[in-house]
Amino acid sequence: MIYRSFTTQWSDNNIKINYKGGGLFSVFINIFFKNWVSNNSRTYSDEITVNFYKPNNGELVKTLLFDYTRNIENGKVVTYFYNLKLFRATIRSIYKFFFKNSNVVGIPELYMAIIRSAIIEPIEFLKHQAGWELTHANVFVYNDKTYVIVAGSKAGKSTLITNLNEKHYINVLSDNYCFIKDNKVITIEEPFRSGKVSRYHLSFYKRRINGYPKVFEANIDFILVMKRQSQNYISKLTFKELLCEISAINYKEKEGIRFVSDNDPIKIDNKKFLINNSNYQTFELGLAEGLKNIDKVVNIIIQLDETNKRFLTSTKNKH
């Protein structure tokens, strides 16, 4: 069987992804990376390869859903998957069909986990070597300004981005992950998920797919760290505070190559989020509980550019 392949879709330093075997894996590749797969391949500087068999050498890494072995071969990140818990995931998918609000790991969640391990983690490893840092964030463009909203799971990122998109027609680059380097942000294609689960629509962890990004890079204007608080607010954040907040979020989420098995050759030990200070503005965004507060925070974000201009004018006048 020959390898299938596609590339990331950034302006430079792209990565080629090769894969073969695993019929369902090919299906979910086309679901997850819809635009990357359908677009023409770009010039690439690194490669990732995914296989579905047990290799003769390399350290075994066991997870609850599958086993894998990862090697770095001739500069390429090569991952081998085997012992997939496919039967158990199938039974759970049938259960989910009849009990649509159940939060169990079925076929979609199994392959979502494989894609994260097979592709997203190796991309993170390769980009980290070039000075990029991955974090949990929404990225969108509104009125020619790029906003990065950093927050952990269950903080309301997806709900916020859905509300923004419905009311203000923003251009969403990501509602899950992004890479930051200097004043630039690049994203991984991943379907947007929101809305109620339906038996007849593909969903992951109780959220239905409702769209895809078409742009995967931008220059950053604002980075906001969003927190659940007792009231809605926005306040300035120093760059040092920003780094501490993002490091804390990443550590709490425990996803990515800082938290893979010690047997995994792409693991890195440095737990700190390290990026260079650049010319974007940094803020802390408080979000109170309740859907009504989403609308209020949306208005805070939409008015942020004007708020920031007033803040800069005030600061300049003081000096």
In the CATH hierarchy, the third-tier topology of the largest domain is known as Rossmann fold
Number of domains: 2
**CATH architecture label of the largest domain:** 3-Layer(aba) Sandwich
Count of alpha/pi helices = 8
SSE pattern, N- to C-terminal: EEHHEEEEHHEEHEEEEEEEEEHEHH
The average pLDDT value, as a whole number, equals 87
Poorly predicted runs: none
- The coarse overall form would be globular
Radius of gyration: 20 Å
Look at the helices and sheets and give the structural class.
alpha+beta
Helix proportion of residues, in percent? 25-40%
Terminal CA distance reads 68 Å
Q: What proportion strand?
A: 25-35%
Number of strand elements: 18
Biggest sheet: strands, sense, closure?
9 strands, mixed
What top-tier CATH class of the largest domain fits best?
Alpha Beta
Index terms:
319 residues; alpha+beta; Rossmann fold; 2 domains; six-stranded mixed sheet; 8 helices; globular
Structural summary, described in words:
Helix 1 (23-32) crosses helix 4. Strands 7, 8, 9, 10, 11, 15, 16, 17 and 18 form a 9-stranded mixed beta sheet that branches. The longest helix is centred in the middle third of the chain and has 23 residues, at 107-129. By secondary structure, the protein is of the alpha+beta class. Strand 4 and strand 5 (67-73) form a beta hairpin. It starts with a strand and ends with a helix. It has helices at residues 23-32, 34-38, 86-98, 107-129, 157-168, 239-253, 291-302, 304-318, and strands spanning 4-7, 14-19, 44-51, 60-62, 67-73, 76-82, 133-142, 145-150, 171-174, 177-181, 184-186, 192-194, 203-204, 207-211, 217-219, 222-229, 233-236, 281-288. It folds into 2 domains: 1-130, no CATH class; 133-319, Rossmann fold (3-Layer(aba) Sandwich). Helix content is 33%, strand content 30%. It is built from 8 helices and 18 strands. The radius of gyration is 20 Å and the shape is globular.
